[in-house]
Amino acid sequence: MTDPASYWPPFGLTLTTPRLVLRPIRDEDIPAAVDAAASGIHEPGRNPFSTPWTEAPPQELGTNMAQWYWRCRSGMTPNDWTLLLGIWHEDDFIGCQDIAAKDFAMLKTVTTGSWLRRSVQGSGLGKEMRAAVALYAFDHLGAEVAESEAAAWNQRSLGVSRSLGYEPNGITRANWAGKTQDVQKVRLTPAAFHRPAWQLQVQGHEALAKYLGLPV
């Protein structure tokens, strides 16, 4: 059988940390992703996402997630791309870490977002997966800036950012999940990055870089 990575190079990317494997979500991974999300990501009434996708009825959640994965794939171009990386811990799907960019060749800037099922939160895995994409962005893609954001009340997410060296980058007001929220933006540069002691293992980068029109 032909490897899907031969015609869609992002599928060939794998990032490995001491405890995690990160790779683009394939169709066969979607059921595990839906089960992880349905198991619970945040406490009821405390939605940390700008789009309240976790509040969809159970019969709609899987459809919405699958459509999002397909939409990101189909719209991926060198000038506007989003990589949705599934997170595996001890062979279990536990969440998603995305990395995205627009006009990357000029701006050298990526944005990140993530979710992690509640049963594994608080064990440092969120920091490890964010460190993985920061390492990949700076050391392999050639990014000069990594940006993220979180609701101002979401101190767990902002704490992960601070621990990796992200610096505050302004507060804005936005409509998040149908509510007015103060949103804290954060920014990381290679010089400020608190690099982990471990080394990131990367496979499949060259084909992806060519696909995105980046130097190899």
- Taking pLDDT < 50 over at least 5 consecutive residues as the criterion, the unreliable ranges are none
Measured on Cα atoms, how large is the radius of gyration?
Answer: 17 Å
Approximate helicity band: 25-40%
**CATH third-tier fold name:** Aminopeptidase
Identify the CATH architecture. Answer: 3-Layer(aba) Sandwich
Q: At the fourth CATH level, what is the homologous superfamily?
A: Gcn5-related N-acetyltransferase (GNAT)
CATH class: Alpha Beta
H and E order: EEHHEEHEHEHEEEH
Largest sheet: 9 strands, mixed
Number of helices: 6
The number of domains: 1
| Terminal residue distance | 28 Å
Secondary structure tally: strands? 9
Can you list the strand order of the major beta sheet? 7-8-6-5-4-3-2-1-9
Outline, from the CA principal axes?
globular
- Average pLDDT number: 93
Tell me the fraction of residues in β-strands, as a range: 25-35%
Would you tell me the structural class of the helices and strands? Answer: alpha+beta
